[in-house]
Specification:
By secondary structure, the protein is an alpha/beta fold. The protein is about 35% helix and about 15% strand. The strands form 4 sheets. A 7-stranded mixed sheet has the order 1-9-8-5-4-2-3, sandwiched between helices. A 3-stranded antiparallel sheet has the order 7-6-13, with no helix packed on it. The structure holds pyridoxal-5'-phosphate (PLP).
Length: about 375
């Protein structure tokens, strides 16, 4: 038995679409990118989308488009992929880490306000919530705080394509205050283009600034207004993305079904804490992540070994909070987020992807029952 932790679902539709672009001779950003942006924006429920080379570059551009830089602080979570915080550093701004909630693993809204600063030398400019593992943050509370303190909201929706909070898609909240959101299209994510990313926004101004930043600050070819980058997506990638987008709801439904099966069976085992999303949340299970408590007979690391020996792909997302990573320690950060520290020692992610068969899921459950 060999069950992978992730398995990109590429069918003949994606292969045909990419091949057609290859045969057309128009490989770089062109009509497919434009079509992908329009359909993605419609899917999320926003006016504009800008396709990029990755989720990381989508985050950086979203921040830069709001002129976030030197002297600005951005409140975010330490329990996420490094790219979230690095994007803030790239802009010259300062990530401020607020602790997480132990049930959702997301930024704890109750702790955000204490971290807001308003002096000349230190001022909070934005909140960057991450919908970790596909589980939406409490956007009602986060948007209320942002409104009260006039903060920009940049959502990191890199793991949450199609997730919803109170029936509204993530990636469309930040935009309420002229903000933007970032998605990743890396192969392990809920949909993929190989590498790639997407920015969503309702602001015409932010949309135009992102377009400039993506193409070397150029509105008219070879005339450059601002310092930009090459953060473009290719038409091959966009053609694949268009096919993946058609299948996204089905992929997410399968992820949800798989998670429900695992929940139903693993919930009964003492020492395992399964993900229980809030009523208002549509969790799309980019990852299915459980916590191991001391009641379980094996330690987290013993379980990892046992699963690997049994052919079950598994991973720890993430073993070290960002404020404890070497590059952040070198910048003077200290661990002051005890919940994130504790959770990072307890979590294990199990396969939940749409390619799993019923017997794969049964085998995962049985392996836990026999530990
Ligand atoms: C994947 C991911 C990113 C970065 O996306 P890339 O496409 O890999 O650059 C950023 N934030 C989070 C939470 C992610 O999971």
């Amino acid at each position: 038995m060999k069950i992978n932790i992730a398995s990109p679902q590429i069918g003949k539709e994606e292969i045909k679409a990419a091949t057609q672009v290859l045969k057309s001779g128009m490989l770089a950003q062109g009509p497919k990118v434009q079509e992908f942006e329009e359909k993605f924006a419609r899917f999320i429920g926003v006016k504009y989308a800008v396709a990029t080379s990755s989720g990381t570059t989508a985050l950086e551009m979203a921040l830069r488009a709001h002129n976030i830089g030197q002297g600005d602080e951005v409140i975010t979570t330490p329990f996420t992929f490094i790219a979230t915080a690095n994007a803030i550093l790239y802009c010259g701004a300062k990530p401020v880490f607020v602790d997480i909630d132990e049930n959702s693993f997301n930024l704890d809204p109750e702790k955000i306000e204490k971290a807001i600063t308003k002096s000349v030398s230190r001022r909070t400019k934005a909140i960057l919530p991450v919908h970790l593992y596909g589980n939406p943050c409490d956007m009602t509370q986060i948007m209320a705080i942002a409104r009260k303190h006039k903060l920009i909201v940049i959502e990191d929706a890199c793991q949450a394509h199609g997730a919803e909070w109170r029936g509204k898609k993530v990636g469309s909240f930040g935009t309420l205050l002229g903000g933007a959101s970032a998605f990743s299209l890396y192969p392990t994510k809920n949909m993929t283009t190989g590498e790639g990313g997407m920015i969503t926004t309702n602001s015409r101004q932010i949309y135009e600034k992102c377009n400039l930043l993506r193409a070397h600050g150029s509105r008219v070819k070879y005339y450059h207004d601002i310092l930009g980058y090459n953060f473009r997506m290719t038409d091959m990638e966009a053609a694949i993305g268009l096919e993946q987008l058609k299948k996204l709801n089905q992929f997410n439904n399968l992820r949800i079904q798989n998670a429900q099966f695992l929940n139903k069976n693993l919930r009964k085992i003492p020492g395992l804490v399964v993900p229980e999303p809030l009523k208002q949340a549509k969790h799309v299970y980019h990852q299915y992540t459980i916590r191991i408590t001391p009641q379980f007979p094996l330690s987290r690391d013993e379980i990892l070994k046992k699963l690997t020996q049994s052919g079950i792909g598994t991973a720890v997302f993430y073993p070290l909070p960002i404020n404890a990573q070497k590059i952040y320690k070198d910048l003077g950060y200290k661990m002051m987020t005890p919940v994130a520290e504790q959770i990072s020692k307890e979590v294990i992610s199990l396969p939940v992807h749409p390619g799993l068969k019923k017997r794969d899921l049964q085998y995962i459950v049985k392996t836990f029952q026999n530990m």
